[in-house]
Amino acid sequence: MTQAADAIAxxxxxxxxxxxxxxxxxxxxxxxxxxxxxxxxxxxxxxVEECQSPVFVSVEGTxxxxxxxxxxxxxxPTTRGFASILFSALSAHSAxxxxxxxxxxxxxxxxxxxxxxxxVRGMRGMLARIKRKTAELISQGG
Amino acid sequence: xxxxxxxxxxxxxxxxxTTDWLKQNLGSVIVxxxxxxxxxxxxxxxxxAVKLDWHTELNHPLRRDYLESAQFAELMNxxxxxxxxxxxxxGDRSNWWATYAFxxxxxxxxxxxxxxxxxxxxxxxxxxxxxxxKPSTASRDYPVVDRHDNQIRxxxxxxxxxxxxxxxxxxxxxxxxxxxxHMPDFPNEGATRGGHIPTAASIPWSKSxxxxxxxxxxxxxxxxxxxxxxxxxxxxxxxxxxxxERSSHSWFVLKYLLxxxxxxxYDGSWTEWGNLVGAPIATGSEPGVVV
Lengths: 142, 291
Hints:
The complex is a heterodimer of chains A (142) and B (291). Chain A has 142 residues and is mostly helical. Chain A is 54% helix and 11% strand. In chain A, a hairpin with an 8-residue loop joins β1 and β2. The mean pLDDT of chain A is 90. Helix content of chain B is 31%, strand content 10%. Chain B is built from eleven helices and nine strands. In chain B, the strands form two sheets. In chain B, strands 1-5-4-2-3 form a five-stranded parallel β-sheet. Chain B has a four-stranded parallel β-sheet with strand order 7-6-8-9, sandwiched between helices. Chain B is globular and about 55 Å long. At the A-B interface, α2, α4 and α7 of A face loops of B.
């Protein structure tokens, strides 16, 4: 786990029910806008099929420093919140750190009982795709 | 077709309201938002609306069941809803979860429940006002009333006895055929068998919806549910999906728009049937027979 990922999980677990949702909402509002260059090159983004909403992710950079980009619709704040958590936890970290993060990280946020299982599955899908794309990127010598 | 003219054709046209009607009547009704995305209400909602969380507030915490009578009364008091109040439900995804809440209100016999045709998206598309202000609510002394499961809720043994009579599977075609067996990483909502209940017709719930998320006109719904299936509108119907949420949308269409007298929602749905030892299933795109 990255320090950032641990800190986020601890922040969520510190809070109860509705306050956890409020924190997720704050994350959703903090998701950085997608860089303009992606609108001209949608092929740089991969769709996260596990999510019900149209969510896209891009993994760029080098083994020492990976940068993540996300696109998620404003009318799907839960999905945006998950994307924003993964951005904060993983972006600007090394490939090794990203690959070392537990697949179970979404469950460690303590949201399983207040968000629906389908939603948590979407976040697991995002994480799995980020890890796979990170592995592909460094195997290409990136 | 004009929306009002369209609504007037439905069997129970008085349960569906338009955005214009709601704007004029905001002061005299209790507006309740129920969404698939449970954060959406907090990003902005119809002024005065209270949030109802289908996932955490309508289900029994310990059994796979709905709230008990006292719990429902407590929930209504928390939301500031009285037994005589007129409740207007709306939500995201073409009112998918709003109709689910509608069905639960009816399990408890709440008389005056209306649905906003087109739901949240139509309100927003028309530039309807949104606010982040949450209304302050006070208990309206909602009485503890019995939950009536026998009229609109079907249980597995009743479903078994209903095979061969009108039954609607409202999931996606892939779920109906059995092509999509289960959801990876998802033991809680998966099923050990893929397919559908034998003789059930496949009518995905979203086929009842138009581009602007309002319901299709009566004649189109009649084609979908009666002409295309050969089902007799005077028969009893059962609708099901995965956990009973999408099928409450189709339950609403059958009961209130098409006027089918007896329609029950099988909330056990595929997560129960697809795991039930000995339950017959059919695979492929045809309704099939019991073997």
